[in-house]
User: Which sequence fits this backbone?
């Protein structure tokens, strides 16, 4: 199984100090930074786009930006995000009729490709072909569009189903994940953990990052021993 990666969601950060907040997370042990891009169409909220990502990329050299594209036309923004320094471009399968073409476009621009599913979308929507073509699969554990929502338990079995089909793939969970909900996510097989308020609002974010990571490591060791 791929290794544990913690990707703090900057949606929970102080946007007025965005580069400083990203540096604070990296210093605390975060490997990726989860950038929530919302277009006001696919989801009702608007957050940030390529210009802001470009500023972060410039201000935090070497940052791995895990770009979660909650947009209604995912293919349209691939070039802009690549030019802005995006490292991984994760789009929603619900937003396109040709996910394989979007994955190809992302790879042409030298980014990793991620495919996300919302809470009401079954994991079987990610076919074997799509899953093998993508670099990462994202199971949303809240409805996309805003931060701070409560974790939806019924999404967890989707992680296990995807892990059974794709044992070597990065599988990410996003939404309501923190110290109280990490155990079920890790045991189901997720290795990339997105957490927003649980990390950014903690008095000692580095301790939360370490806890999330060690929980995934422990679950993986337990799975390997079976």
Assistant:
């Amino acid at each position: 199984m791929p290794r544990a990666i913690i990707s703090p969601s900057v949606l929970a950060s102080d946007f007025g100090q965005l580069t400083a907040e990203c540096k604070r997370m990296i210093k605390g042990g975060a490997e990726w930074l989860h950038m929530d891009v919302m277009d006001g169409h696919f989801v009702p909220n608007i957050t940030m786009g390529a210009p802001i990502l470009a500023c972060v990329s410039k201000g935090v050299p070497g940052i791995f930006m895990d770009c979660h594209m909650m947009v209604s036309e995912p293919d349209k923004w691939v070039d802009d995000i690549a030019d802005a320094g995006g490292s991984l471009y994760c789009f929603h399968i619900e937003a396109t009729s040709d996910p394989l073409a979007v994955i190809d476009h992302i790879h042409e621009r030298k980014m990793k490709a991620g495919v996300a599913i919302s809470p009401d979308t079954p994991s079987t929507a990610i076919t074997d072909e799509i899953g093998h073509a993508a670099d990462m699969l994202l199971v949303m554990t809240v409805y996309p569009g805003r931060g701070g929502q409560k974790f939806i338990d019924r999404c967890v079995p989707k992680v296990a189903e995807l892990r059974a089909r794709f044992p070597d793939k990065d599988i990410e969970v996003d939404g309501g994940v923190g110290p109280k909900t990490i155990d079920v996510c890790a045991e189901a097989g997720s290795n990339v953990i997105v957490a927003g308020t649980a990390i950014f609002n903690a008095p000692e974010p580095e301790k939360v990052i370490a806890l999330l990571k060690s929980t995934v490591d422990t679950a993986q060791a337990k799975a390997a021993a079976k």
About this structure: The first strand starts at residue 5 and ends at 8. The chain has a mean pLDDT of 97. The longest helix spans residues 205-225.
